[in-house]
Amino acid sequence: MSDKKPEKKKRLKTAEKLGKLMADYYTESAMVKAQKKPVAWLSSVAPVEVCYTMDVFPIYPENYGTMCAARKLSAEFCAAAEAKGFSTDLCSYALNNLGSIYLNKGPFMGQGLPEPDLLIATEHACLSMAKWWEELSRHFNVPLYIVDAALPVGEGLSRHHINYFAEQLKELMDFVEEHTGNKFDMDKFKEVLGYSDEASRLFLEIGGLRKTVPSPISPIEIFTNMFPIVTLAGKKEAVEFYNELYDEISELAKRKEAAVPNEKYRLLWDLFPIWYNLNLFKYIEEKGGVVVADVYATTFGGRVDISRPFEGLAERYVGNPLLSYGVQQKTELYKQMIKEYHVDGVVFHSNRSCRMASMGQYDVKQGIYEDLGIPGAIFESDFVDPRSYSDEQVKDVLDSFFEILESRG
Amino acid sequence: MMIKDFQERYAKRHELAKGWKKEGKRIFGYFCGYAPEELIDAAGIIPVRILGSLDKVTLADSHLQSFICAFGRSCLDQGLKGTYDYLDGMVTSKTCDIMRNMPGIWSRNIEIPFVGYIGAPAKRTKAARGCLIEEFKVLRSKLEEFIGKSIDDDSINRSIETYNESRKLLKELYEIRGEDNSPLSGSDFYHVVRAGFVTPKKEYNKMLSSLKRELISSKSSRDGKVRFLVSGSTFEDVNILKMIEEAGGSIVADDLCIGSRYFWDLAEPASDPIRSLADRYQMRIACPCKHPSEERMERVLEEVKKYRVEGVISIVQKYCDTHLFEYPYMKDVLQKNDIPFLYLETEDRMGEEGQFKTRVQAFIEMLR
Ligand code: SF4
Ligand code: SF4
After folding, report:
1. I need a surface site. Which of B24, B110, B133, B181 has the fewest CB within 10 A?
2. What is the tens place of the pLDDT at every residue in A28-64?
3. Nearest CA of chain B to the CA of A41: how many Å?
4. Number of helical (H) and strand (E) elements in chain A, helices listed first
């Protein structure tokens, strides 16, 4: 979501603005320590709005993992974590992060991330996060709050699932207050939620513009443009940025201008990009395939009902379909997306690092094929750790997939 | 009652279950030690635990990637082969990421009339308790709908008593195992615990009582054996334990999923049995998929002290994220307390015995 390398010349006018947002964020992150502003490390799908409400600077080790991967540092970092006893089979976001801490190195001027004063993680995205953050808490000896969700996988949300999460959000505010001295303010909270909701709305609508044939935005552009929704949800800047991006993309959509020339096959992508090889999308594009839909990006945008601030924010996080859907619901969701986005085929990236989201892909693929006749391809890789990546094997899978698509005409 | 009766019980589990079916009984399966069996039992349904097997996996590979643990893979494989066709339903509880995805895959491919999923919270807070109570209430009414009649508090209380009785007996046997010159070995105890997953608890309690009576009057020698605590995830191959014993070790305490973690905590009687169950399942010795993880380590340290353990052996499934994540931590805690530690990563039936044996022997040599 933050790698800029694969695209040399930017097609989108807003790219410059995005570059500036990112640069500002990282400049600030380099200065927060000197400014004595509290720093929290957050896991993905942790409620960043809490940080913006409480004036805490959020850092995302996962986002950082994607950067280390893009800058080809992740192999060294993962190995450093393994040297401490962490199994090579564990999530490489975690290994990369832990390794960079042990080595005290990183992609910014050779340095690691600013050290946390607080740690906030969820356990409902996957259990690895809770365990990884527990390790961070032991390493830095700083307080940790785990936001937990009773996820009714495959069963549908009930009031008590929302209430449990909402209660924890309140506890989390107290936790931050206690450890930083910063006071909670309801008006500020509502303002932050307003921005978060608006940025989400725009981000989801931008994603929706990919229903246009040909798609007005490329997958690399989508993943790159996730940065504000992940990192700046709750900031005015994110809303301003997505407003501009929306205008630009909807203009392209109106003019039927293709983001990728030669759009022959419209593809649904499950789930993570390979962060050290975003060029794989280029390979797909050379074959006439364009990824026009994915759930990975969309799960970071969730609406918030501001009239019930805590419950509303809880719904944004607990309602995330990626997390609470079982195989059947996921299949239904994909089938619906296939229709709406005029999809011809599905590519499943089986990510060795993420058992939670990869498990069940074979059944989803099968279900989609049985019900809609839409073919799928599955390849295995790791999203951050390149050490066992086989470009050849991945391309073999894709090549035969395109043969199937071609034979279908 | 002899150990081999327990062994047999387990070996014949599917046959026996089919027999209960013929008598018109309903049977439910569950995977983890976090499914509230008492509720299922109170509904008049026999709960049995679905465990791995040492048979070759043939069908699950087309549903699960190579990086899914052998336990999950084997469970699904047996399901696909029809081994569990007698089940009328299953109840799973949110524990690890594999268990979380299991019911969806299972029910898409294997016919099963009832699937109950408990989105159990991972924390030990009051808010988490409130949520778990709600989840149990939902399960209760789903069960009531399924059996077509209500499950009253009294019958839940009776089930709680039966289950508590079981746990008490298992704890007594656990103590006996830890005694000097105990007649009960660690691998024997594993057989005893495992049989309980597939035996109606009333009958099981009788088996446990009679075993206890017999053990009290016998002794065996543990001279010169190194005293171990065994910790870890599920594993199917009891030979790993046997091998430790044959190499000169003696298992005197455990922190195992198929072991003390399952039976350690009793449900305290309360006016509201659902609350009492929620308490029990929330506050039981945490498996590593729960948060925080300190308490589990503290208990390990206490057991080490209490049973004069000389070394800890951890047996963990490959690809088991939560256990693997806690391994460096455990190593650290044990090191700080000067407790020797050996770590074995298993993939069940992958021919790892030879390699394990050499390492266990070397470990024992070092401790002698
Ligand atoms: S170790 Fe925990 S998650 Fe794994 S099977 Fe046992 S109870 Fe379930
Ligand atoms: S072995 Fe580990 S990953 Fe597998 S089911 Fe048990 S706890 Fe989950």
Report:
1. B24
2. 988 998 999 999 999 988 999 999 999 999 999 888 8
3. 18
4. 19, 8
**What residue numbers bound the domain in which B76 lies?**
27-154
CA A359 to CA A350: how far, in whole Å? 8
- Which residue on chain B is closest to A84 by alpha carbon? B328
**Is the CB of B233 within 6 Å of ligand 1?**
yes
CB burial readout A291-302, b (16+ within 10 A) else e:
bbbbbbbbbbbb
Ligand 1 pocket residue status of B207, Cβ below 6 Å = no
The closest alpha carbon to B312, from B320, B321, B303, belongs to B303
The closest of A48, A50, A62, A46 to A124, measured between CA atoms, is A46
CB of A22 closer than 8 Å to CB of A227: yes
CB B105 within 8 A of CB B63: yes
CB contact under 8 A, A327 and B101: yes
The structural domains of chain A, ordered by start, are 29-181 (3.40.50.11890)
CATH of the domain at B88: 3.40.50.11890
Give per-residue pLDDT as tens, A227-267: 999 999 999 999 999 999 999 999 999 999 999 999 999 99
Contact B123 A360 (CB under 8 A): no
Q: Which tokens belong to A91?
A: 């999530």
Q: Using CB atoms, which residue from A131, A326, A355 is nearest to B326?
A: A131
Look up the ipTM and state it. 0.94
- Residue indicated by tokens 């010795």: B285
Joined together, the tokens standing for residue B201 give: 């608890």
Question: For B255, what's the count of Cα atoms within 13 Å in the CB-facing half-sphere?
Answer: 27
Contact B128 A163 (CB under 8 A): no
Q: How many CB atoms lie within 10 A of CB A209?
A: 18
Burial class of residue A407 (count of CB atoms within 10 Å of its CB; 0-12, 13-18, 19+): exposed
Pick the atom of ligand 2 nearest to B31's CA: 5
